[in-house]
Amino acid sequence: MASPRVMSGIRVTGPLHIGNYWGAFRNWLSLQKDYECYFGVMDWHGMTTAYRKSEEIAPWTREMYAEILAWGLDPEKNTVFVQSQVHEHIELFMIFANLTPMGWLERVTTWKDAEEEAKQNDTHNLGRFAYPVLQSADIAIYRGEKVPVGQDQVAHLEISREIIRRFNNVYKAKLPEPQALLTNVPSLPGLDGRKMSKSYGNTLLLTEPDEKTLRKKVNMMLTDPQRARRENPGNPEICPVYSYHKLYSSAEDVEWAATGCRTAGIGCGDCKGRLAQNIENLTKEPREQKKALLADSKKLQGLMDVGNEKARKEARKTLEIVRSCMKW
């Protein structure tokens, strides 16, 4: 039997940071072992808020594509595509847009929560409002059966299920209603202890340009405020540095950091230094592979072209099914 088909994408908003990795991309690396996967670099979604910086979308897209391959995503086993290069996404989006009630979109929690902010930064636009419809088309165009999400994102997937279900009901079609593939998404604070966000300027890139930059950023991280002095014991559970240790360090180093913090046996500088080294150990090889791909533009473009054509081939099949059901 064929493996279930997974569809997932990462929105193009600039270089990937480690929140993107632990929230989505790490799961891709695991899923590619057991599923037929379609993974997208979603530049149309990025344009909804970055339309004033449109000249930066293409470089960001190329960097993101190189990054995910450098970290181990297999372009031969998976279909890795750039959203805007598969025009069928937009065609299915228009079909879905015409049968999606406005009320459904007005009730989307993420839209309501961000609407005031969107008005203030000039991103209160139709593209952002209709984001869930395009997302539904992104999934359905590959007849995706599974979508990896964290528990807090299950509700967001439901509107895609509703839109696809409405299409099926109206046109007596059988597009798959995507099911949530629950994944563990750890809570990861930014360098300043707040939620990691590019808008806050508190991100640690997935591959920093070099080890010096990586260490500089790790040294900027906040720690337990009780450890104002070297001899003061602290609580590692409230320290962002320790939360990173639990992701990047060995069990021995995690214990070393926890015990050293509680007993004041180590200073925060020692703890940060060990963390930076552990991150560097995991990052060095992907960083070099990413640089090599970006330096060889012909090779990178060739890989992107192959992935995009594989995606188009499957997307065209879906549109044939869709148009047949619509008798259009």
Question: How would you describe this structure to a colleague?
Answer:
The protein has 328 residues and is mainly alpha-helical. 57% of the residues lie in helices and 8% in strands. The chain has a three-stranded parallel sheet with strand order 1-2-3. Strands 4-5 form a two-stranded parallel sheet. Strand 1 (5-11), helix 1 (18-31) and strand 2 (36-42) form a beta-alpha-beta unit. Helix 2 (43-50) packs antiparallel against helix 3 and helix 8 packs across helix 9 (154-171).
CATH superfamily of the largest domain: HUPs
CATH overall fold name of the largest domain: Rossmann fold
Strand tally: 5
Numbering strands along the chain, what is their spatial order in the largest sheet? 1-2-3
Please give a quick description of this structure:
The protein is mostly helical.
What topology does this entry show?
Layout: E1 5-11, H1 18-31, E2 36-42, H2 43-50, H3 54-70, E3 79-82, H4 88-97, H5 102-106, H6 109-120, H7 126-129, H8 131-140, E4 146-149, H9 154-171, E5 179-182, H10 211-220, H11 240-248, H12 251-263, H13 268-295, H14 297-326
Parallel strand pairs: 1-2, 2-3, 4-5
